[in-house]
Structures are given as structure tokens and as C-alpha cells.
Amino acid sequence: MTPAPSKAKATDGAIRAAKQIERNPSFIPSTAEIIDRETGVRELVEVLENIIAEAGDLIESRSPELVAEARAAVRRYADEAPRQGE
Q1: Is residue 73 part of a domain?
Q2: Which residues form the domain of 25?
Q3: Of the residues 4, 43, 45, 83, which has the fewest C-beta atoms closer than 10 A?
Q4: Do 25 and 52 fall into the same domain?
Q5: pLDDT digit string, tens, across residues 71-86
Q6: Shortest CA distance to 19 belongs to which of 33, 4, 31, 2?
Q7: ∠ Cα 6 10 14 (to 5°)
Q8: Per-residue confidence (pLDDT) for residue 7, from 0 to 100
Q9: Structurally, how many domains does the chain consist of?
Q10: What is the pLDDT of residues 42-60, one digit of tens each?
Q11: Does one domain contain both 31 and 54?
């Protein structure tokens, strides 16, 4: 069974990867969506965002560097693509 197509726009990172892989420009968007879906990057970013939102202050009191790294990763990988629930 194949996964249902995502209505979310592919992340910028997946589009960059698809451009490196795909020779036919018309296939880049669909290749990027497959990359996002199969790697789970979007879901991981969403989980990380939720952890920071719920427990960021608690974690920051013990490891401010860890929270700073997590926030930087979210900024780097979350890009402007809308989430699946949006």
C-alpha cells in the first residue's frame, strides 16, 4: 500500500536534495515530497517544536546549550513550508 500524497509543500531541504538527484525539473517537487515523507524530517521537526514549547524552560534550566541547539535546528529545518495539519 502506498502512502497518501501529502498536501503540505515540501521542505526547502528536500527541494535542494531533489534538485541534486532529479534531472527532470518537472519531477523535482514530487521527488522532494517523497524525500520529506520517507525521511520523516517534517514529523521530527514538529515533535522537536512541541518538546521545546512544552518543556523548553525546564530543559533550559539544566542544559541551556541543548535548548539553543534544538531551537537552531528547528529554525534550520522547519523553513517556511506549511505543516501537514495546516
Answers
A1: yes
A2: 9-39
A3: 4
A4: no
A5: 888 887 766 544 444 4
A6: 31
A7: 130
A8: 59
A9: 2
A10: 888 888 889 988 998 898 8
A11: no
What is the predicted pLDDT for the residue at 76? 79
List all residues 6 or more positions away from 31 whose beta carbon is below 8 Å from its beta carbon. 18, 21, 22
Is the domain of 47 the same as that of 58?
Answer: yes
- Judge if 70 and 44 occupy the same domain: yes
Per-residue cell: 64: 541551556
Alpha-carbon distance of 42 to 11, in angstroms, equals 8
pLDDT in tens, 8-35: 678 888 899 999 999 999 999 999 999 9
Decide if 14 is inside a domain: yes
Ordered alpha helix ranges (H), the chain: 12-21, 28-39, 41-62, 64-78
Q: What is the pTM of this model?
A: 0.59
Look up residue 40 and give its three cell numbers: 520523516
